[in-house]
Amino acid sequence: MSIRYSQDFKDSLVKLHQEGRSLKSLAEEFGPSKDSIAIWVKQATPIMIKGQSKTLKDVKQLEKREEVYLKA
């Protein structure tokens, strides 16, 4: 069974990583795997799209909305 972590928890670990903590130290202290934390960091890392800063999470949400719109 996989553990579901709250978005606030994920965001706090991403922030700690961005402040310099290693994935290994975060995994050891808080429990999620290094791979899980790395995915959260990747999802929260801004990318530039047509001059606008977006995260991978933002892009995925837009894609889902577009799919729903196109199916309607």
Automatic annotation (TrEMBL):
SUPFAM superfamilies the record matches: Homeodomain-like
One Pfam family from the record: HTH_Tnp_1
UniProt superkingdom: Bacteria
UniProt protein name: Transposase
